[in-house]
Amino acid sequence: MIEIEQSAALNTVQDLGRFTWRHLGVSVSGVMDPLALRAGNILLGNDENAAAIEVQMFPFRVRFTADTAIAVTGADCRTRLDGIELPAWWGCAVKRGQVLEMRYPRHGARGYLCIAGGIDVPQVLGSRSTALRGSFGGLEGRPLQRGDRLTTGTPTAAPLPPGGIGIEPPEQAMPEAFTRNRAGLVNVRAIPSGEYALFAADATRFWQQPWQVSRQSNRTGYRLAGEPVLPSETVEMRSYGLIPGIVQVPPAGEPIIQLSDANTAGGYPKIACVIEEDLWRLGQVQPGQSIQLVETDAQGAIAARQAMEHWLATVRDSVTLYSSAAGF
């Protein structure tokens, strides 16, 4: 069990989300950076969908009330255990009474605290994720706060080494797959979508100009600020189903990228869809920072998926190798 000593709005319990209820108006929810969650759970021998704590408001501090093991992944949150700083993307054993603190990130936006056995809150519609807009899931459907106590599941893997074990961050391990442009902006790959042809006059600018993530952004969607892109004609559309990654263009011409808590239906024209393999990168972009949208296709998305799964496989192999060496 762990006890929350300090937290703020928007720090929640999340897993990979609930995917089979959108036809009833229930959003996916789940982590904004699924790659970080999966890697942290692999390191601990958890199921990859085990619930963890998504931290996006800092500082965040917890006390461990029993011996266990943890992994901290995602943003480099300058995490300290009893005042000693831990590397980013790190797993280690912790003792009862120890205190862990995650502070404002050096880079990235969201850090993840994974626990051996996972966070054991009730499943709602097949997921432990917190749906803030619906006030269900997670811990009582709300953000974590001081004094909350979270139960953890039963660990199923070998204990981690006393000195800890690290993971090479995905951007370092896969530089050819996760690139930045000349200005250092994160490249986010997207495929032209349903009403793309309506924006033919502005399509080049959509791909070429940088887009700043507005401070009016959240887990529902990122509003992008830049020179507007406008359709060649005004069209009335019926509402259609939405998924995370869809890039809609409201009448003002500044796109919105739907994310983890995305609406389940909408009627703005769709200009593109960010590939699923790059959604984790968006989850690590802070409001006020800029991104570069890069046109790709289905083959590009498949190549990105293969690179991502190869990296996760190397994490699994490293854990298996350690377990074998430790005699488990």
TrEMBL record:
Domain Carboxyltransferase: 23-311
Positions of the UniProt region annotated as Disordered: 143-163
Pfam family, one: CT_A_B
MF annotations from Gene Ontology: ATP binding; hydrolase activity
Alphabetical keyword list: ATP-binding, Hydrolase, Nucleotide-binding
UniProt keyword Hydrolase, yes or no: yes
Top-rank taxon: Bacteria
Descriptive protein name: Allophanate hydrolase
Organism from which the protein derives: Chimaeribacter arupi
